[in-house]
Amino acid sequence: MQPYQPQPQQFQPQFQAQPQMAQPHMPPPQQQWSGPPPGLVAPLGPPERVPDGVRIGALVVLGIALVGLSAFGGYEVAFYGGNKLQILLWFLPAIIAMLAMTAILQSTVYSVRSDGWVLEGTGVLGRQGIALTRLTSVTATAAGRAVQLVLRDDVARLTIDTKTLHKAGPAVLDVVGRAVWAGHAQGRYALPRTVAAVWGMPTRDDAPARGKAGATGRALAVVGLLLLGTVAGVVLALA
């Protein structure tokens, strides 16, 4: 396998000075903003972070809602019965709460963008981002053909579907690939094979398949709340 060779750097100087005027006593030329490189956005500044208090509060509210809504669904099914469509409608609010809670726990984002240094996207709790120059871990989760990348810096993490990353454009895909490869080359983490396959990067013989993303434990906790509420609802209906 050929070594991974990132594409030529796409960053261009952001300012272009006009030629000096030949006339004496003229003021120095003004600099003109040439815009960000194609496919990237203007500098984003420090990454947006979701405050811990906001995240914990949202998880508590959603957890209570999930138990209550699933109990309602379980009660309705046990007491009235119904066809598959009715069962789905009774549990639909609980499913929505479960998906929202899972997205917050995994810091899943969509509509990603980057300025070359910061990667950010929109999640359930708004905009949030990470510093690409400070990646400390890169892992992946997979379900069928869907692959999600879990990128962590020294403060936060983002979970991004590879399809979402491709939709952001070649420039964003390239700068994220550069950052992922830089962290691996500097020994900050071992590049999992699933992650390397996104960019066609080589891996070590002892490279993990996906790395430890921690998504399984979170998913089991959310499903546990769903089952807890459902059982409670069934018990109430049969009592």
Per-chain topology:
Layout lengths: L14 E3 L13 E3 L18 H29 L3 H23 L3 E5 L3 E6 L2 E6 L5 E7 L2 E7 L4 E5 H6 L2 H16 L7 H7 L15 H24 L1
Antiparallel strand pairs: 1-2, 3-4, 4-5, 6-7, 7-8
Helix pairs in contact: 1-2, 1-6, 2-6
Question: What does this 3D model show about the protein?
Answer:
- The protein has 239 residues and is of the alpha+beta class.
- It is built from six helices and eight strands.
- It has a three-stranded antiparallel sheet with strand order 3-4-5.
- α1 (52-80) packs parallel to α6 (215-238).
- The longest helix has 29 residues, at 52-80.
- The radius of gyration is 24 Å and the shape is elongated.
- The model is unreliable at 8-31 (pLDDT under 50).
Give the overall average pLDDT: 84
Our measurement of the CA-to-CA distance between the termini, rounded to an integer number of angstroms, reads 65 Å
What integer value in Å does the Rg equal? Answer: 24 Å
Number of helices: 6
Order of strands across the main sheet: 3-4-5
In short:
With 239 residues, the chain is an alpha+beta fold. The protein has 6 helices and 8 strands; from the N terminus they run E-E-H-H-E-E-E-E-E-E-H-H-H-H.
Which descriptors would you attach to this protein?
about 240 residues, alpha+beta, three-stranded antiparallel β-sheet, 6 helices, 8 strands, about 20% strand, elongated, membrane, PH domain-containing protein
